[in-house]
């Protein structure tokens, strides 16, 4: 994992995620150099300084994009706005939930992201899925070269990610080239659902996953018999739980197993283990809709996969990073062991040799993402070679 700050694991995670989303190393250096002193105050205390520096760069890129547009250079403007949106989001994610500037910054990020997609002509469409009197927002990436209904992999966030992050990092484009569509969701507790609608996380993830399936079954461009579900990070709890209780999913996968998230919280409480975001305890209470630590601690014993995975009777892929500092590797083995009735289960540990050995491959998503895309494609139906004749390298 790239470590710009010697003592700030949380800030380094943010940088690695930004790089995976398309950040440029020169811009990273320009944003981070001024906050080296602030980093020594700690992950939480220095986050406002971090935000100011990253927003300054994002604003500059937005201004440069506007200059491109004056000259009719929409593709160049879209490229700059894509990075600006990444920097806005990175700055927003590190702030406390009650920070006054957080919501306006998130809205600024959304606007920049949507504009970048439009100007760049990317294969990405915003959808809204009916849910409990409101909606869940999603990004839809269409399969390439498919006539008629295409298979779909639904992808869901973790504790602190958003659909735009998953779109930039996870294998949506790789799947599209393989003939598989992607639906990337801000489920309750994440992204727009949390920030704009106040929809907090729920233990029974099938509650929203079933509504997603209802919606997908109405789409003529999606094959309702070939829909899979993948979860990233805390999605490693949400996805198996949903597949266990929603039998319409044709397969399941996790990018980072999270077999017993409640147990992980107890460990963090004891030793303040490696956290994904600053202001961590405030953040988890916000995500789950709890008013204080007492309420949160009453909830967490429910957040585990013990005793339910034997309900899964479809193919299932469990992946984990060998060097994951947030979620113990043993949880990947526990999830895999519980899939006793899956007709096609696989456990894949990403090593340093392959890359992607950190939590949910935040250090290098490319090879891990390709592996997941191939595994899903081989089971949902698609192609793992070019449209022409597959070519094998001769040695």
TrEMBL record:
Domain named Peptidase S9 prolyl oligopeptidase catalytic: residues: 211-381
Pfam families: Peptidase_S9 (PF00326)
Coiled coil regions, renumbered to chain: none
Sorted UniProt keywords: Hydrolase
GO molecular function, one term: hydrolase activity
Protein name: Alpha/beta hydrolase
Organism: Deinococcus roseus
């Amino acid at each position: 994992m790239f470590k710009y700050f010697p003592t700030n694991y949380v800030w380094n995670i943010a940088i690695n995620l930004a790089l995976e989303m398309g950040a440029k190393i020169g811009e990273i250096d320009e944003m981070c150099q001024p906050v080296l002193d602030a980093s020594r105050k700690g992950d939480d205390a220095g986050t406002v300084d971090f935000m100011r520096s990253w927003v300054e760069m994002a604003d500059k890129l937005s201004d440069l994009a506007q200059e491109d547009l004056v000259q009719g250079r929409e593709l160049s403007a879209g490229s700059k706005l894509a990075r600006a949106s990444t920097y806005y989001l990175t700055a927003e994610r590190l702030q406390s939930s009650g920070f006054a500037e957080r919501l306006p910054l998130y809205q600024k990020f959304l606007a920049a992201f949507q504009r970048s997609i439009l100007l760049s002509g990317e294969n990405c469409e915003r959808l809204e899925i009916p849910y409990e009197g409101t909606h869940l927002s999603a990004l839809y990436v269409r399969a390439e070269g498919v006539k008629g209904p295409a298979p779909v992999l639904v992808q869901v966030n973790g504790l602190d990610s958003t659909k735009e992050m998953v779109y930039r990092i996870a294998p949506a484009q790789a799947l599209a080239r393989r003939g598989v569509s992607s639906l990337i969701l801000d489920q309750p507790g994440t992204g727009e659902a949390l920030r704009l609608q106040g929809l907090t996380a729920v233990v029974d993830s099938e509650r929203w996953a079933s509504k997603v399936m209802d919606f997908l079954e109405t789409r003529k461009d999606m094959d309702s018999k070939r829909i899979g579900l993948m979860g990233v990070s805390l999605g490693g709890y949400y996805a198996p739980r949903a597949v266990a209780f929603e039998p319409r999913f044709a397969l399941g996968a996790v990018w980072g197993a999270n077999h017993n998230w409640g147990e992980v919280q107890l460990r963090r409480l004891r030793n303040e283990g490696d956290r994904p975001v600053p202001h961590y305890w405030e953040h988890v209470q916000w995500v789950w809709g709890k008013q204080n630590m007492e309420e949160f601690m009453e909830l967490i014993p429910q957040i585990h996969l013990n005793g339910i995975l034997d309900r899964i009777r479809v193919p299932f892929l469990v992946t984990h990073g060998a060097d994951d500092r947030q979620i113990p590797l043993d949880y990947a083995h526990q999830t895999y062991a519980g899939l006793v009735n899956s007709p096609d289960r696989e456990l894949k540990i990403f090593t340093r040799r392959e890359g992607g050995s950190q939590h949910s491959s935040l250090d290098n998503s490319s090879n891990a993402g390709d592996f997941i895309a191939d595994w899903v494609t081989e089971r949902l139906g698609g192609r793992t070679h070019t449209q022409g004749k597959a070519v094998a390298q001769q040695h």
